[in-house]
Write a structure and sequence with these properties.
The chain is mainly α. The chain has one domain. It is built from nine helices and two strands, in the order ααααααααββα. Strands 1-2 form a two-stranded antiparallel ribbon. Strand 1 (about 165) and strand 2 form a beta hairpin. Helix 6 (about 105-125) packs parallel to helix 9 (about 175-205) and helix 8 runs antiparallel to helix 9 (about 175-205). The longest helix is centred in the last third of the chain and has 31 residues, at about 175-205. The protein is globular and about 60 Å long.
């Protein structure tokens, strides 16, 4: 939920400048897909009301972010965003229909699909690293607060993934579906925080 909510800080900056700049809609679309898939996973087979609620809040947050993005983006970005949304809808319907057709048989496939969909939002901001370095500003990247939240969330998720226990309580069991996306998110967060630090040091040097 923290990762979903952290987009609000970026959207607030977009609303303040009434422009999306060089930012992409992909992070919001990817997180929306992830929240929908995880909401389905939370209902069946996990039967977790708390996880369902968290992901429903995430869905609402990402939908709000997308509406604001579409409000302030250029026509070219808007058309591209609509194409991505249609593609995402087709993907979601296909994956969920396949999963529900045989929950037990397709559980592993669906779990890895959810894991991959958690990885995508973590690496998408890195696509703008070149722009940030070239322009010497971070307007195309998430804010430092967003990066900090993402990094903290990744560290906590790695801890949770590595401290689980088997059903008989005998030995620790690593949750691969949580661990691998969290490791990717951690690496992405480190890179983004490093860019923010680099830019601030550069600005101080210029002064």
């Amino acid at each position: 939920m923290a990762v979903a909510a952290m987009c609000i800080t970026t959207i607030a900056d977009i609303c303040r400048h009434r422009s999306v700049g060089n930012r992409s809609a992909l992070p919001y679309i990817a997180k929306l897909i992830s929240c929908i898939l995880l909401a389905v996973y939370a209902v069946w087979p996990k039967d977790s009301n708390l996880s369902s609620l968290i992901n429903i809040i995430g869905i609402g947050t990402q939908a709000y972010c997308l509406v604001k993005y579409l409000t302030y983006c250029t026509d070219v970005y808007r058309h591209w965003c609509y194409v991505c949304l249609v593609s995402a809808t087709v993907f979601l319907v296909s994956i969920i229909a396949l999963y529900l057709s045989d929950v037990e048989g397709n559980l592993a496939f669906f779990s890895w699909t959810c894991a991959i969909c958690r990885i995508v939002p973590a690496i998408v901001p890195l696509l703008n690293v070149g722009t940030a370095v070239r322009e010497n500003n971070m307007r195309s990247m998430p804010s430092v607060l967003s990066c900090g939240i993402a990094l903290a969330n990744a560290i906590l998720s790695i801890g949770v993934a590595c401290t689980g226990t088997r059903s008989d309580g005998s030995v620790p069991e690593v949750d691969s579906f949580l661990l691998y996306p969290s490791l990717v998110a951690f690496g992405s967060g480190v890179v983004q925080i490093s860019l923010h630090i680099r830019l601030r040091l550069l600005l101080q040097h210029q002064e």
